[in-house]
Amino acid sequence: MPAEAARGAAVVAPHTLLDDAQGLAFGTVMAAFGVAILTHLGLITGQTAGLAVLLSYLTGWPFGAVFFAVNLPFYWLGWRRMGGAFTVKTFVAVALMSGLTFLLPGWLEFAHLNPVFGALLFGLCSGAGLLALFRHGASLGGVGIVALLVQDRTGFRAGWTQLGFDAALFGVALLVLDLRVVVLSALGAGVVNLVIAINHRRDRYMAW
Description:
- It is built from 10 helices and no strands.
- It is mostly helical.
- The protein has one domain (16-199).
- α7 packs parallel to α10 (179-199).
- It is globular.
- The mean pLDDT is 84.
């Protein structure tokens, strides 16, 4: 039997509850650490987390509270499009990350962090965290769910919807943040997307 056929015929065991628990824990810790880097440098990112970061800068409200609240409208959509298991896991992941962002300032501080390296490190940590969550059937944001619904109903590609949202978000950021901050933010967001694009592929890696 050719190697490709053997791989295709392999039976992949589903994740256990313990597998999912450690995956959600790892993913949320890495993502929360990424947000700690992001907010320390005063940067933003894309998608729902980026919207929450920008709103927290503009209002002075804690990121964790804003992020949790911004995601609330999307759970019903997630339930319809992705099912109950995905929605419950996503709710748990969002709640864990929101809580961790309240705790991390008391556990972690940066004496010095180069902004360019910080943007890259944010992208790597957040990308790894999101990848872990995706592999365990969860996410951290609602924009992707909306993009999938738009694709289902109109045929418009989900990736383009997400790109349009991010373009609008960074456009608004240009009105209230320094250009250098927005450029560094775009660098970090680009690394996040690159990590996911390279590693979250069903044609190359097993999803479960």
